[in-house]
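Notes from hallway chat w/ T.B., transcribed later so I don't forget. T.B. wanted the structure written out for a chain they're using in a teaching module, and asked if we could keep both sequence and structure tokens in one place. Agreed to drop them here.
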Amino acid sequence: MRSALWLASLQAGRMRLTALLAMAGRVKVPPDYRFGTNRPWTIAAQRLNPPGKRRRKVFVDHIPHDEWSVFRGDTVEILSGKDQGKQGKVTQVFRNRNWVILEGLNTHYSPLLLKDIRLVDPSDRKPTEVQWRFTEEGEKVRVSVRTGRIIPRPVFQRKDGIVPSQWKDGPKDTSPEDTLEKTYTPTLRTLEEEVMEALGIQEPRRARKSYWY
């Protein structure tokens, strides 16, 4: 029964994903369409791109994964626009489009480009360019070009407020050793037969053989 429910939910999820991909494939946007965080077929995206409005095309340069220097939790300063000079915390990062979203700042119709922000040096709270360098121990760190100080990467925090690197197991938590311990022995018995054996239930009756022609 549980296997059937699980299979049904998996098939339903695949159907929803297939429908979503098919919808995205049918959507055609004009050449001057300005992409945002909303899907193109939603009302919010259509409101930001009304018919007849021409917008400047935004070109995005690919940044290699090992050269990306802004992460979620960093404090940055906006360099242009109506929020120029304001500082905010990065809540989301979209590397495929060089986007960042700042907490509490209505920056634009779409997220900010990486070229429009600068990382804030925690030593003096001023924006600075950064470079990746290696310490004597071989650790790769971000260094402020202006002050030469190391800017540590922000501690990753989940939405529920838990920091995985600082988590300590409680008395009711399962230890990693117990998790990796193999306690299941494969068998050819069904789930019902295993439950009956564990509870000491004896069932001498057997199902009658049936034949299909």
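Follow-up for T.B.: The radius of gyration is 28 Å. Might be a good example for the class.
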